[in-house]
Task: structure prediction
Amino acid sequence: MTKIEKSLMVGRGRWIADFTESFRDFRLNDVTFNAFVRGNTRMKGFVLSRVFSATVNPNYSVACFMMSAETVRDFDRKFLGRLLQAVRSCMKENEMRWAWLIILSAKSTDALKKLVESLKDQFIGVALVDVDSGSIVHSDSYIGKQVKRFIKI
Result:
């Protein structure tokens, strides 16, 4: 989890957003996420980068929620629905444009993989990361497909 967090804040994640804040054990409604990283799409840099960013790039608030499947007794469709609802409420409350939900698992089942692949929410990208093999299964949305490019395991 720390590796993904670092990858977002100072690694490849910097290409998509400027993730500036990170929280551990972030409680949202009735769900506690292991990690929460937020930022915005307005990049910082030297003078030319800032001018380009200010004139061309929109300034959207974005976030990444991380959850370890092993911390939950029954990780099923119902629990995933609760996670997605908590993410949606946070997005609405903080006027976020999009968010990633990354689920880390050492033993991901085929049913969970199919469930993640079937999600089509265009504002929340969901990824199931198998920490043993390093494989990533993502939701069928543009935001979901981008997770593979920007996180490093």
User: Anything to note?
Assistant: DSSP finds five helices and six strands in the chain. The chain has a mean pLDDT of 79. The chain has one domain: 2-150.
